[in-house]
């Protein structure tokens, strides 16, 4: 993604805006760009430069790789559960699917709706949105009961209180993840209304199904 500052600089370089007008625009944006905290938390995308976007991608990939060593599985764009520590082949495959496959589907679906977007911008939206999802995995990995124990208790008609508490703790982070993903996708593609919802929901459903099929055959 390109920040407003980078867009103005590009216009100046192209000669479409004079250097003096460019400085005036930048000064005006600095005066108006004091976002409240909630806007930074839920819709930071307008202010992300390409450098910030690249850093966000690197952080998201690294966090997913590290947390996978604690038995966290991300076998789909919305899937998150605790299990045995996956092998590196599975971990890399999940990262490729969760970032690469979702990015291609999200960008391609947006193109079907004639949206002019760059794959990099869509990937930044995916990466930023995945950070809350990965944070939601931490209490599950550190404090969650053994999955086999939970399965036995559930089959016996019991619901462990730790599962309920951890589920309630992770729900806000899951909601944060979806809000960021939706707003980032909107910013990256420029879509709005029915095309935005159609492209967004189609991407989630198709990528989830494809991820399940690919990982089941590894």
Gist of the model:
By secondary structure, the chain is mainly α. The chain has helices spanning 4-13, 19-32, 37-42, 50-68, 88-112, 119-143, 147-155, 161-189, 193-216; strands at 72-73, 81-82.
Word description of this protein:
The chain is elongated. A hairpin with a 7-residue loop joins strand 1 and strand 2 (81-82). By secondary structure, the protein is mostly helical. The protein has 9 helices and 2 strands. Helix 4 (50-68) packs parallel to helix 6. The mean pLDDT is 80. A two-stranded antiparallel sheet has the order 1-2. Helix content is 74%, strand content 2%. It folds into 2 domains: 1-34, no CATH class; 39-216, no CATH class.
Oligomerization state: single chain
Portion in helices: over 70%
Q: Tell me the span between the first and last alpha carbons.
A: 34 Å
The ordered H/E elements are HHHHEEHHHHH
Please give the number of β-strands. 2
**Rounded Rg:** 20 Å
Alpha plus pi helix count:
9
User: How many structural domains?
Assistant: 2
Tell me the major beta sheet: 2 strands, antiparallel
Strand order of the largest sheet: 1-2
- Mean pLDDT over the full residue set: 80
**Uncertain stretches of 5 or more adjacent residues:** none
Strand residues, percent: under 5%
Strand-pairing-aware structural class: mainly alpha
| Inertia-based shape | elongated
């Amino acid at each position: 993604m390109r920040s407003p500052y980078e867009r103005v600089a590009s216009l100046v370089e192209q000669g479409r805006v004079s250097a003096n007008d460019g400085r005036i625009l930048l000064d005006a944006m600095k005066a108006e760009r004091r976002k409240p905290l909630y806007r930074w938390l839920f819709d930071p995308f307008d202010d992300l430069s390409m450098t910030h976007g690249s850093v966000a991608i690197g952080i998201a990939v690294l966090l997913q790789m590290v947390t996978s060593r604690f038995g966290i599985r991300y076998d789909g764009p919305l899937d998150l559960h605790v299990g045995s520590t996956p092998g590196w082949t599975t971990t890399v495959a999940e990262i490729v699917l969760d970032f690469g496959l979702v990015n291609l589907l999200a960008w391609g679906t947006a193109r079907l709706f004639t949206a002019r977007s760059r794959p990099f911008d869509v990937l930044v939206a995916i990466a930023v949105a995945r950070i809350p999802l990965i944070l939601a995995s931490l209490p599950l990995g550190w404090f969650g009961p053994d999955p086999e124990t939970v399965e036995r208790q559930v089959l016996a008609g019991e619901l462990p209180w730790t599962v309920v508490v951890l589920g309630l703790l992770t729900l806000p982070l899951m909601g944060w993840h979806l809000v960021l993903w939706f707003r980032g996708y909107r910013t990256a593609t420029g879509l709005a209304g029915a095309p935005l919802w159609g492209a967004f929901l189609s991407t989630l459903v198709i990528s989830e199904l494809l991820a399940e099929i690919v990982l089941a055959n590894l």
